[in-house]
DNA sequence: ACATCATCATCGGAAAAATCGATCATGGAC
DNA sequence: GTCCATGATCGATTTTTCCGATGATGATGT
């Protein structure tokens, strides 16, 4: 049984003749005849009763009419369903460097696995810059640690980052927050960085003014400097976890109120891309898995 | 999209690999690869994400898994449905000569159209003989004008025959029933004939004893003799209607109580043939059409 | 009665598709 | 590094599908 044979059969029934069906299907009459015969053979049943020139449906044939219609309909639905699940084009996604480094690799891989046709354009910037880019339409979506105007933006909570103080293993800087005033604080170079702002607010509330500040363009730089004993920094624990030489660093928690920072996927309410919903699904699923500690397929290498 | 391609796809998903699917389907690995590629091409969609050697379903692929299952299931149902509607074998049907001549041609043609594989073995005999044959198992079913024992037989009412008196056009025999005593009465040769019995009862009730009786083996004989002025006979109007030279005959009604005779399809309760149900359906439908006067496809030739 | 038309079946060859076997490419395991 | 498992690719072969021509059959028109 073949879908094309069913179509042929349906055409013969609809037009009431093999010749007319052949014309309708732009095929030779002999082809239609063969096809019907083959269908009858494969079903082991006579579909038409031939008396002279005219064809009449047999009981089996009448049964098949119904099922053929259903099968072809389902085939059409299948094509449509598969088509609808196929997203094409590109997706411009922005994220904070920290998120891009620690959180995104897995869900983005998953997304690409599910939608190989989508070209994901990932840019990193500060939270404020990202929100501005989404607003400007330069980005389709961004993952930020900012709270945004919910009238213009749609904001889907994703990960809760926990900020921790890090410094070289054994460094005196972590013993008490006040010690930070004596040393160098390593910060991300952009003013729009949500973590840097959080750090600034915390220090200010405690009337701590660091002796020196060093700006870095990447977390690798910050970690390298911290590990070398240059100073201390406030970083998300998730980023620290993907830092290869994290054994060279000491970590110190800070009060949860200051430490916890919600990140969210932010999109313009006016922009509705079907692809975006798929990406959002991947991210939410991953965030949920991270919260539950059961990220499937996660490979922990020795 | 092809059902075999869907099976292949399903096998690949089930076994988790093209090679294993090929083994399962007893096909070469390259064939499966081609088939999947062709399926992807025909759907215009990437079903698997190839990273290195392993295959992962894309979102489109996952959608197809569901639909492929449904399609193959429906295909199986189709095969089953068509098979179930296919009846094979032979059917031994008995009928009174009158019914066989006047009523059966159309519904039997319809039945044969619907079930070309069934060999219908039609025998004519008297009502009593037919019932005996059904009882003996020589016949699968019979159409008779008898009332039968409903504990052993199943009886489905079909046609109501109307018996009429016929004789040569202008014959005096039809003027009054009593005239029959003066002439020759033409009867069917079997004692078991329901019509003949009805005639006998009627004449007896009126204390009419025909001068002569002639037995015939067929209605053609009776009609020919009647038309030739040999005598009168009591025949079903339906048979008269299919007699070509009916213009040579005069017809006279008799009281409905005597004239009307119900025929029925009789089968043994212990015998259940699926084919028989189909035949019964054809006969009932035809009988209903005759009652309603709307027998479809009936061709009245000029 | 005869020719004509419409219809479907059959046949042989051509075109297309599916399959196979062998080989290559790639990434992981030892 | 070498093996091993896995798919992709290629050319040859087999199978399937299609076409065009021809034949058979019954209805229609003259």
TrEMBL record, chains A, B:
GO molecular function: DNA-binding transcription factor activity; transcription cis-regulatory region binding
Keyword vocabulary terms for this entry: DNA-binding, Transcription, Transcription regulation
Signal peptide bounds: none
Domain HTH lysR-type stretches: 1-58
Domain of life: Bacteria
Family: Belongs to the LysR transcriptional regulatory family.
Name of the protein this chain belongs to: DNA-binding transcriptional regulator, LysR family
Organism of origin: Rhodanobacter glycinis
């Amino acid at each position: 049984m073949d879908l094309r044979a069913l179509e042929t059969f349906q055409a013969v029934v609809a037009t009431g003749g093999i010749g007319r069906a052949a014309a309708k299907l732009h095929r030779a009459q002999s082809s239609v005849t063969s096809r019907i015969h083959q269908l009858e053979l494969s079903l082991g049943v006579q579909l038409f009763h031939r008396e002279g020139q005219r064809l009449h449906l047999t009981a089996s044939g009448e049964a098949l009419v119904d099922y053929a219609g259903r099968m072809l309909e389902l085939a059409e639905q299948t094509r449509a369903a598969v088509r609808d699940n196929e997203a094409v084009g590109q997706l411009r996604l922005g994220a904070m460097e920290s998120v891009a480094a620690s959180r995104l690799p897995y869900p983005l891989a998953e997304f690409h696995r599910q939608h190989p046709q989508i070209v994901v354009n990932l840019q990193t910037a500060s939270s404020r810059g990202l929100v501005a880019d989404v607003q400007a339409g330069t980005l389709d979506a961004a993952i930020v640690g900012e709270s945004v105007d919910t009238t213009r933006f749609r904001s889907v909570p994703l990960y809760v980052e926990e900020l921790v103080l890090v410094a070289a293993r054994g460094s005196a800087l972590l013993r008490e927050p006040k010690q930070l005033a004596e040393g160098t604080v390593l910060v991300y170079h952009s003013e729009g960085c949500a973590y840097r702002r959080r750090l600034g607010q915390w220090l200010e509330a405690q009337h701590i003014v660091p002796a020196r500040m060093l700006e870095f363009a990447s977390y690798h730089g910050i970690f390298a400097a911290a590990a070398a004993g240059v100073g201390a920094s406030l970083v998300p624990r998730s980023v620290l976890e993907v830092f290869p030489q994290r054994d060279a660093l000491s970590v110190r928690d800070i009060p949860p109120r200051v430490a916890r920072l919600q990140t969210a996927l932010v999109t313009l309410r006016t922009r509705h891309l079907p692809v975006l919903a798929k990406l959002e699904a991947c991210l939410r699923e991953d965030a949920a898995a991270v919260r539950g500690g059961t990220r499937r397929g996660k490979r922990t290498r020795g």
